[in-house]
């Protein structure tokens, strides 16, 4: 894929009920062999479809030049998309929007297989939705919610103890370290940027979701970043350690961008991320198993958004 660079075409896409959903679809200008695979990029929080630092614009163009059709769109009520007409919970509305995007790609571009890409809450949406739709064959999860592990706390506390500024904050009763401990005690882990956890055991619930995702044969590319003042992951294997009952096997590729921050504010890690996605799409065999998971509603009910 990297050896051939295609000319690309970008067009506005409108779909869903009353064409209320708006996005940008980027195609290779000429037909590509085995072109039934597309990438769909999901919103992060309330950031519209360009993403932080326009990272999804450059990502979609680079993937399209590599031969992959890419759709980035706004959930109902974000960016150029109209608010959802129903009164259903936001998470259900967003699931319907993802389904509408896949329907549109299938109808207009003959797309049969889809890779969902999301950062933070976008990753949360992707993992909660993916296993329930047979068209989803891959997930790219960038900084998904990962429950803290014992080693995470040891690493985190060690870093904070070495940080002179944290001691000054401690004297001023502003220490984030102390706040994190209190949050842990009060079971409020989850953070404002991810989907809101509603009082169930997040670790057990996510372990169930990742388990059925792996059984369904969906390929996972999990990308974590490490350059935060208060990181939610501190080492590469934290994702695996957080879900010890899941047999990911060859379905998982795990990457840790030690020097990248959560929103990829620097160009170098953004470029490296784009190259990683293009290479992963090129070299991965996407094929779901015959496993039929349970309805997404069972899992969606555990979260609000």
UniProtKB/TrEMBL annotation:
Membrane-spanning parts: none
Keywords: Hydrolase
Top-level taxon in the UniProt lineage: Bacteria
One Pfam family recorded for the sequence: Hydrolase_4
InterPro entries: AB_hydrolase_fold, Hydrolase_4
Domain Serine aminopeptidase S33, first and last residues per copy: 49-165
Any one GO molecular-function label of the UniProt entry: hydrolase activity
Keyword Methyltransferase (UniProt): no
UniProt name for this protein: Alpha/beta fold hydrolase
Biological classification of the source: Bacteria, Pseudomonadati, Pseudomonadota, Alphaproteobacteria, Hyphomicrobiales
